[in-house]
Amino acid sequence: MTSTQQADAGRTSELPKWARGNSHRGGPGFGELIEQVRSVMDASRFIAPGDDVARELTADLSRIVERMQAIAVPVDDAAADSREDLPARGNPSLPPFEIIDLGSEGVVAEIVFRAFHLGRLSAHGGNISLLFDELAGYATMHRVTSGFARTAFLKVDYRSLTPIDRPLRARVWVEEIDGRKLHVLGTLHDGDRLCADMTALFIQVPDA
Ligand SMILES: CCCCC/C=C\C/C=C\C/C=C\C/C=C\CCCC(=O)SCCNC(=O)CCNC(=O)[C@H](O)C(C)(C)COP(=O)(O)OP(=O)(O)OC[C@H]1O[C@@H](n2cnc3c(N)ncnc32)[C@H](O)[C@@H]1OP(=O)(O)O
After folding, report:
1. pTM here?
2. Which CATH number goes with the domain that contains 68?
3. Does ipTM top 0.90?
4. Which of these, 18, 58, 71, 142, has the minimum number of CB atoms within 10 Å of its CB?
């Protein structure tokens, strides 16, 4: 059996514990909390406050940061990045994608880039690259025979401007497997229009 055929047979071990996800950590209100965190980031992109207001807002936010720091847990126990029921698993640092389809054929996700992701006229290219990297993590996770795959390189071609504030469709899939090397491709579309495409190499490793 070649390595490609082997991988076609799918994953032979369970997903690592950290990748199995959950829908309870942080409680039922956690999704709304993370959405508010995103809203803070969005709103911060469009203000030019006077010094007094900047200081007041800083004080308000400092109180919130202190409350969160007081309830910090080890990262492996944190709700963010673990909640499979929430956009981007409740990780506020990721563009808030929603998984539409996921399996050995790859992953399809809907993404709305927003104010926080704005570069100048369109979504910042780095955020598009981040989206592709993350989705490639999903796609490779379902094709490695065990463990995890790390990004060795990831190249994005920006084909047309990527708008914010409207649903876009991303697709990422493993095109070829050669031993531990997974060649990954991806596309991002606004309707029929190609915004960006991606080529990446992921390497299978025993764990994240
Ligand atoms: C909670 C989940 C809810 C449920 C959801 C369900 C499923 C989904 C679950 C999880 C998915 C979710 C999240 C995943 C998220 C995101 C994924 C992001 C992934 C990352 O963001 S991860 C961080 C960035 N990433 C790094 O931090 C890597 C640093 N780096 C290294 O760790 C090493 O560098 C490594 C491991 C890459 C290789 O090291 P190594 O020692 O293992 O292997 P080695 O060097 O021997 O290379 C073996 C062969 O690859 C070729 N090769 C290597 N590198 C190459 C390159 N750059 N270009 C061309 N070829 C290359 C060699 O030439 C050789 O080729 P050959 O065999 O032909 O000679």
Report:
1. 0.93
2. 3.10.129.10
3. yes
4. 71
